[in-house]
Amino acid sequence: MSKLLILYIWALTFAHIGSLGAIRYAVIAVIVTLIIVQGRKGFISNSWAYNIGGGLYLISGLLATILEGPASSWSYVFFTVLNFLILPAYAFNKIPSSYLMMLVGYILLTLLTMNVNGVKGAASMYGNPNNLATIILCTSYLALLAFKGRTALQVLMIPVFTGLMFLTSSRTQLAAILLFFGLYFGQRLLRTHLKKVLFVALIASFVLYATLVTGDPFNIIGVVQENTIGHKGYRGLSERDVLLFASIDICRRFPFGVGWGVSGLYIYDYIGDTLSPHNTFAKVAVEGGVAALVGYLMLLLGMMYRNTTILSGSFVLALTLRSLFEASTPFSLSFVSMMLILPFFLNENSVTITSFQMKSKSILKNGV
Fold this sequence. Notes:
Shape: globular
Distance between the termini: 28 Å
Domain O-antigen ligase-related: 162-297
Radius of gyration: 20 Å
Protein name: O-antigen ligase-related domain-containing protein
Number of domains: 1
Membrane topology: Multi-pass membrane protein
Pfam families: Wzy_C
Transmembrane segments: 6-36, 48-67, 73-92, 99-119, 131-147, 159-185, 197-221, 280-301, 331-351
Strand order of the largest sheet: 1-4
């Protein structure tokens, strides 16, 4: 515990003296260290979806980086392989809830740098509102894990994180966090795991997204515009349809991928700006190749159907909604990219309630 406290203090210091980019590495450093500190068993997954799907993603992406990627693309290789190997450790090692509380407290401290600046939305050391919104979504998952077994505190997280998300003005991620809370607490009230329903909903989200970018026959954009509060009410897809079709054309030209982390360089030829595809699945296909996308979908759908708990299943579905409108490279060195995979291993079954928590809960209950 003393070593973790030292790391915690170091991470806080590093976060506040580092650059905007450095803060993201400080966050992930704490998570990786939690694995190492707790790691006492093997780092091998027993999930065929992870081994086959993740392996296909990894091999295809490595080949794309070797064949097409510039030097900047190679910086992803080490961390992608490392994360692929160490993430399964969460399934074999128990994480004390107190560790997660410290992690959540640390991230919340960084979120307090949020600054609402007129029509520009929220800004923070995470760089832009979309990054900030995704950090809030991911932290809400860790917070519910940290307060496992304490329903009142979990319920308290709803207004805390929903309020933070509202300040970012991110429409899709506000919908995602509300969906996450609704699915999780709804299943708990029903006392059942709607795994098959979640699986069908995951497929349905892909279908609805396809209709959205190909003409919007159900007038989804119109409904969103009418019910959006704030300066983003007038916006539509914000060129996400253009970015998607540009990504499809890049995949046609480079079916084996262009290398990790460089999709923006190729999209520049289409829109005159180095934007990401703003879609995680498109980003995976562009950078790692079509085979990498097949592997990632196999990993996501296979593990969603077989290995999820009530909490992780709800979060993965919500995060998938976010992934249709924002982009991350799975397994790379960032908090967001790790949370694309991490919930399959770090869930309710991975967390133990510390003796301090149980004792304090007993004191509150007995009034002693």
